[in-house]
Predict the 3D structure of the following.
Amino acid sequence: MTHPHARKNRSYSRIVQPDGRFNVTRVGLFNPPWRDIYHLMLTMSWPLFFLTVSAFYLVANVLFACAYLIGSDNIANATPNSFLDAFFFSVQTMASIGYGAMYPQTVYANIVVTIEALSGLMILAAATGLMFARFSRPTARVLFSGVAIITSYDGRPTLMFRAANQRRNRILEANVQLTLVHSTTTQEGQFMRRFTNLPLVRSHSPIFALSWTVMHVITEGSPLFNQNITDLEAREAELIVTLTGLDETLSQTIHSRHSYMPHELAWDHQFVDVFTQRSGGNLAIDYAQFHNIYPVGDQSLAAKK
């Protein structure tokens, strides 16, 4: 048995991946996928979803085709013992096509047709429900800056990163939360991963439409006070961002998340301004400059990037 305080060869990588997924491997938990098939079908990728539904459809028709082949002369106008004829008859029955060229001519075949017709209705209903659930599931298209910066703002060191709404609508009552995840050891010598919420200058926005610069002032009470990249890497630190709000179009709550590792923090840098004034007074935002930064005091680099 491993001692609970033991910490040998333990290292932590990014918990939240750039695509928003959690990079955590669960071991010692018996939870086969088929025990939560609905959640699995909703969370798998679209190509895998279509492949799974297609495979299930083909397997079902193969099984019913084998059932029709039991005995003889179950299907009129079908070639005796022809698997292809039995398979295509199964496809016609399950999809309620009914071309009329082949039809059941025995009591046994009619019983199988009845079972397959009922199964076809259930499969169609389940597939339709899954498709609708996948299409109707609310998703957020929030863009986070590739790096976070630590610079002086109003004379105080401040952590900043940017978020942008990539859709042409508004996110109402948007809320953002910033959490520092880091390793620590208690006075009893027990290793723990701690989650510390960092207070923000503004954590709520009634209308999030274009860009939002999120800021945390690094005071003496902040866990980032007097910290550099070496200190944060030694603590196995990670900054996790969660953003929630109400999608104006869908009228549903959406959420997005992102994370920053120590090497994705830039000290004494500024973000390139993404807003420009066009002729006629129109305001424009340049997302091509969204991730760009430049050293403090070097405005020439800001213009070049």
